C-alpha cells in the first residue's frame, strides 16, 4: 500500500487530544466526506505505527521464539495460547475496567429510575426534601445514561481493536512461516490450508475479545442484581433467577457444542439450529422471568406497584443480556478460538 500510494493522509488519531479520543471527534472529517460522497481508498488514513503488521508481528514473534526456546529446554511442545496471553494480557486486561463500569451503570440506573417513580407514586407538593432528592436521582439517571453511551462505544472500539491486533500479528506470523517452509514441508501443506487459516481461523480473535471480559463481569453483575431485587421484592426474585440459572448451563452447553460443529456443511447446519435455539431462549427469557417473578410475588400476598415493576424489569433486563447472551457468547467464542489456535499451532 505504501509503495503504491504516496499521498496517504496522516491519521488524526495520532495527534488527537483526550476529548477527541473519548468522543471520536477525530473521525468527523471522514464522516463529512462520507456524507457527501462514497468513500474511496484515497480517503483512508495512514495506519498508526502501533497497528502496523510489522510491529505487531515482530512483537508476537519475540514471545513465540522465547516460548519455543523454553519448550525445547523443558522437552515440551510450545503453547501458542500461552504466548498470546503473555503478549496481550496487560493491554486487554485494562479494558476490563470499561466492562465493569458499563455493567455497574446498568445496575445503578434502575435504582435511580425506581426512586423517581416512587416520588410520583407518593407525591406531596409540600415535601421539598423529597423533591430535591428526586432531582438528584433524575440527575444521576441522566449522567449514568450519558456515561453508559460513552463507555459502551469506547469499550467496543478498543476491544475490537485489540482483536484486530491479535489477528494481524497472527497473519504476519503465518505468512512469515509459509515463506520459510522447506520443500518437504511444502509437500505436506496445501495452499488451501494456509488460506483457510488466514481467512477463517484468525477471525475468531476479533470475536473472542468482544465477549471475554463477561466471563468474570457476568457473575458479579448477577450477584449485585440478586441483592438489589431481594431488597425490592424479597424472596420472589429467586423465581426469576432460577429461570436464568436454568438457561445459563443450557446456553453454556450450546457454546461448547458450537466449537465441535465447524467446517463440514452438515455440522454447520447443526450449529445453526443450536444458534437459533440460543437466540430463541434469549428473547423468551425476559417474558418468562417477569411472569414467574410477579406471579409468585402476588401469591405471597404482596401488592404490585409501578416503581417495583420498573426496577425489577430493568434489573432483570440488565442481567438477562449479560447472563443469557454475552456470557454464553464468551464461552462459545473462547472454545472456537481454542480450536483455531490448535489448528494454527
UniProtKB/TrEMBL annotation:
<feature type="transmembrane region" description="Helical">
    <location>
        <begin position="237"/>
        <end position="258"/>
    </location>
</feature>
<keyword id="KW-0472">Membrane</keyword>
<feature type="domain" description="ABC transmembrane type-1">
    <location>
        <begin position="94"/>
        <end position="267"/>
    </location>
</feature>
<keyword id="KW-0547">Nucleotide-binding</keyword>
<keyword id="KW-0813">Transport</keyword>
<keyword id="KW-1133">Transmembrane helix</keyword>
<feature type="transmembrane region" description="Helical">
    <location>
        <begin position="306"/>
        <end position="328"/>
    </location>
</feature>
<dbReference type="InterPro" id="IPR011527">
    <property type="entry name" value="ABC1_TM_dom"/>
</dbReference>
<keyword id="KW-0067">ATP-binding</keyword>
<feature type="transmembrane region" description="Helical">
    <location>
        <begin position="135"/>
        <end position="157"/>
    </location>
</feature>
<dbReference type="InterPro" id="IPR036640">
    <property type="entry name" value="ABC1_TM_sf"/>
</dbReference>
<feature type="transmembrane region" description="Helical">
    <location>
        <begin position="279"/>
        <end position="300"/>
    </location>
</feature>
<feature type="transmembrane region" description="Helical">
    <location>
        <begin position="211"/>
        <end position="231"/>
    </location>
</feature>
<dbReference type="Pfam" id="PF00664">
    <property type="entry name" value="ABC_membrane"/>
</dbReference>
<dbReference type="InterPro" id="IPR050173">
    <property type="entry name" value="ABC_transporter_C-like"/>
</dbReference>
<keyword id="KW-0812">Transmembrane</keyword>
<protein>
    <submittedName>
        <fullName>Multidrug resistance-associated protein 4</fullName>
    </submittedName>
</protein>
